[in-house]
Design goal:
Helix content of chain B: over 70%
CATH superfamily of chain A: P-loop containing nucleotide triphosphate hydrolases
Oligomer: heterodimer
Number of domains of chain B: 1
CATH topology of chain A: Rossmann fold
Distance between the termini of chain B: 11 Å
Order of helices and strands of chain A: EEEHEEHEHHHEHEHEEHEEE
Structural class of chain B: mainly alpha
Strand order of the largest sheet of chain A: 6-7-8-3-9-10-12
Strand content of chain B: under 5%
Distance between the termini of chain A: 30 Å
Largest sheet of chain A: 7 strands, mixed
CATH class of chain A: Alpha Beta
Largest interface: A-B, 26 and 30 residues
Shape of chain B: globular
Helix content of chain A: 25-40%
CATH topology of chain B: ABC transporter involved in vitamin B12 uptake, BtuC
Number of strands of chain B: 2
CATH architecture of chain B: Orthogonal Bundle
CATH class of chain B: Mainly Alpha
Radius of gyration of chain B: 20 Å
Strand content of chain A: 25-35%
CATH architecture of chain A: 3-Layer(aba) Sandwich
Strand order of the largest sheet of chain B: 1-2
């Protein structure tokens, strides 16, 4: 049986009187990529903000490896092994790769100064796993391509043993070649046992990479399905019409076909 | 893409432009009037340079964190007034008055920082308001009259701050040594310490820095306090050197200091700062002020040159940045 990494149960989120998430339940296992799909305003962004600790949940529970956890900040999420990788990478453009990787957890020498040698050595190790041809360690991050920046953001996540990655539109700003590169990275991470939530507008990307999809509409989960059990058209039907095909497992309150 | 060569990195560095400009400036002034590079003139340039320079060093850190402080000129004048008012009134010895003046400056910086970080008001507006409050207070408590400072003569404390000595006929004020010390300290902080990494991250991408556990607000508040303290320190040094604590002194310094920092290659929007560049920027402006008088240009034309230099340097930095990003 697959080892469960994170499970959200009956998550509700209110922004004032707006009910942004309604009884959302979702999970990801080790070695699994779950595609989170939905139109604009479906609630995907709110859900990942809840899981990444950026906004507090109104009600509901989050379990990491079976243990209930409280998420009050992004640092709480990171401490629980949950890292979020945004479209814009959330890196500091002027800093080097090593300094970005270790920002907030800098390695210091015995004199209390930054140990750039040790940080760069670690950066080379972790980047070597993800992108063996990468050589531009002395450059500031702003000098890198979009795909290389995503590599750095992913490297930062796995450097500190993140077991759960939330990837929010990781390829939206990338060209085809870089998109393929990030796709390869995701496959590698999955092999390493990491569980990934992949948020994307591109249904083709999601079908290429995800084992399961969860579709949201109007703050609810329409349904969950294994990508091998449903067609792209059926998933489009879930996104646009909120209709759950027979092969999918409906979410709470979803419209049933 | 391959790593850049040393030469490419040197040319692409933000300090390269100001370095070339300073060398060109020195060459032109020396060519027109060889007295420009005389020991006496260099000593004069250095003396006046360090007071604004001390503020510029702190401003570099603050601007790297994405903020700036328009109240430094008023704190420069106010702190000296406070120190000398307390001392002249016989309320406390000079050293204690110095500490009180610095503490008040730290408080001013703290208030600036709180308004900017807690209330999310742009530093331009907060420090503009503080400039008026502080300058107004200095004028009010002195009724607009300078405080007497000649009783500093012979004081060990005054000697430590601005005492002068000669090295082979070259007159040096202690304040130059203070400046050198703070150049080393600020350069070290910005480039070699965790605090420096946090300063750059706070200015480069504050939300990302917060996500990694960087306390952006505290970093900025501390930098506002450092900026105000350095302005106070510089103001007190200046008052002892010139034997005058004028409530109006330091007027306009804020813009000259920001110009020094920007010309040196620190970006106004934050994220990238260079102390070496700022030192070059300080010398560019102070040598310009001195040099145009020596070569016979009317002193009133000074601002024309400064404005032109700022525009030219911004264009150069922008061009170098684009080349750098294009990988050429």
């Amino acid at each position: 049986m697959a080892e469960e990494l994170v499970r959200m149960e009956n998550i509700n989120k209110f922004y004032g009187s707006v009910h942004a998430l309604r009884d959302v339940s979702l999970k990801v296992d080790r070695h699994e990529v779950v595609g989170l799909l939905g139109d604009n305003g479906a609630g995907k962004s709110t859900l990942i903000k809840v899981l990444s600790g950026a906004v507090p949940v109104t009600s509901g529970d989050i379990y990491v490896k079976g243990r209930r956890v409280e998420m009050h900040s992004t640092t709480d999420a990171i401490a629980n092994g949950i890292e979020t990788i945004y479209q814009d990478s959330a890196l500091v453009p002027q800093l080097s790769i090593a300094r970005n990787l270790f920002l907030g957890r800098e390695i210091l020498t015995k004199w209390g100064t930054l140990d750039d040698v040790a940080m760069e050595a670690e950066a080379r190790k972790v980047m070597g796993r993800l992108n063996p041809n990468f050589r531009r360690f002395k450059e500031p991050v702003k000098a890198l391509s979009g795909g290389q920046r995503q590599s750095v953001a992913i490297a930062r996540a796995i450097l500190f043993n993140a077991r759960i990655l939330i990837m929010d539109e990781p390829t939206a700003a990338l060209g085809p070649q870089e998109t393929a590169q990030v796709g390869e990275l995701i496959k590698e991470l999955k092999k390493d046992g990491i569980g990934i939530f992949l948020i994307s507008h591109d249904i083709h990307d999601v079908f290429d990479l995800a084992d399961r999809v969860s579709v949201m509409k109007n703050g609810r989960v329409v349904g969950h399905a294994r990508t091998e059990d449903v067609t792209k058209d059926e998933v489009l039907g879930m996104i646009i019409l909120g209709k759950c095909p027979p092969a999918a497992q409906p979410g709470p309150g979803a419209m049933l076909s | 893409m391959q790593n850049r060569t040393f030469l490419q990195r040197f040319i692409g560095a933000s300090e390269f432009g100001p370095l070339v400009l300073l060398i060109a400036e020195l060459a032109v002034f020396t060519f027109v009037n060889p007295a420009f590079l005389s020991a006496l003139n260099i000593s004069n340039i250095l003396t006046f340079t360090v007071e604004l320079g001390l503020i510029a060093l702190a401003m570099t850190l603050l601007m790297t964190a994405g903020e700036f402080d328009l109240s430094v000129g008023s704190v420069f004048g106010f702190s000296a007034v406070i120190m000398w008012t307390l001392f002249n009134a016989g309320l406390m010895p000079m050293g204690a008055a110095f500490v009180v003046a610095l503490a008040i400056a730290l408080f001013i910086g703290w208030v600036n920082g709180l308004f900017v970080t807690r209330l999310n008001i742009p530093s331009f507006l907060v420090t503009l308001g503080m400039l008026l409050v502080v300058r107004g207070t200095a004028l009010y408590i002195t009724s607009g009259f300078p405080q007497r400072t000649w009783s500093a003569e012979g004081s060990v404390f005054a000697d430590i701050l601005v005492g002068e000595f000669s090295i082979g006929g070259f007159r040096v004020y202690m304040s130059v040594l203070w400046f050198v010390l703070f150049v080393i300290i600020t350069h070290y902080i910005l480039n070699q310490t965790k605090a420096g990494n946090w300063i750059q991250a706070s200015g480069g991408n504050a939300p990302a820095a917060r996500n990694r556990g960087v306390n952006v607000n505290r970093t900025k508040v501390l930098l506002f306090m450092f900026s105000a303290a350095m302005a106070a320190f510089a103001g007190i040094i200046s008052s002892i050197r010139t034997s005058a604590a004028n409530p109006n002194s330091g007027t306009g310094y804020e813009l000259e200091v920001i110009a020094m920092v920007v010309i040196g290659g620190t970006v106004l929007t934050g994220g990238r700062g260079t102390i070496i560049g700022t030192v070059l920027g300080i010398f560019i402006l102070r040598a310009m002020r001195n040099g145009i008088v020596l070569i016979g240009v009317p002193g009133l034309a000074y601002n024309i040159f400064i404005g032109a230099i700022i525009l030219g340097m911004m264009a150069l930095h922008s061009w170098l940045e684009r080349r750098h990003n294009a990988g050429t």
